[in-house]
Write a structure and sequence with these properties.
single chain; Beta Polymerase, domain 2
Length: 168
């Protein structure tokens, strides 16, 4: 069973506009990395965010930040958090030891419109999952300065090369 199958199922059923990024995207694109958090790049339209937050709360997730999670769906408050508190993502977790986490990215070198335009559609069981394109994921990981992202880029370059060879 896909670790976040229940999340994808609900997001799809409610027609949420999202793209999977991060480590789960790497895995869905054919790479291998252990990860526990699901990073999502979403359409930041207020109603889309309200629906996502409602779904996550119904699935038992809680915000890591000590705030009303619905405030994130209010553009003015969200923009204040981004500018004043330098927020990069709004984080949700489930379980006592945060074994399941969902991060809604807000500061990203690839915006949602570009990501969804280039997204790959991955089929896993009965699910249809929009996943960020290899090139866009590389762009997201290029300037983080994290070793795991440098390793991910190497793996993504191999995936890209294998695809080019297969397309031939």
């Amino acid at each position: 069973m896909l670790f976040y199958e229940h999340v994808f199922s609900r997001l799809n059923r409610e027609a949420i506009r999202y793209v999977v990024v991060g480590g789960v995207a790497l895995n869905l694109l054919g790479g291998a990395r252990s990860t526990f958090d699901l990073d999502l790049l979403v359409d930041m339209e207020d109603e889309n965010l309200r629906k996502i937050i409602t779904i996550l709360l119904e699935l038992g997730f809680r915000p890591k930040q000590p705030v009303d999670p619905m405030d994130f769906s209010k553009r003015e408050i969200r923009e204040n958090w981004v500018h004043e508190k330098k927020m990069k993502a709004f984080n949700f977790y489930k379980g006592e030891r945060s074994l399941e986490e969902v991060d809604l990215l807000v500061d990203c070198p690839v915006d949602y419109p570009a990501a969804i335009r280039n997204a790959e559609i991955v089929h896993v069981k009965h699910l249809v999952i929009p996943v960020i394109a290899v090139e866009d994921l590389i762009k997201m990981k290029e300037n983080t300065g994290r070793e795991k992202d440098r390793l991910d880029i190497k793996e993504l370059e191999i995936i890209k090369q294998q695809r080019n060879e297969a397309a031939g």
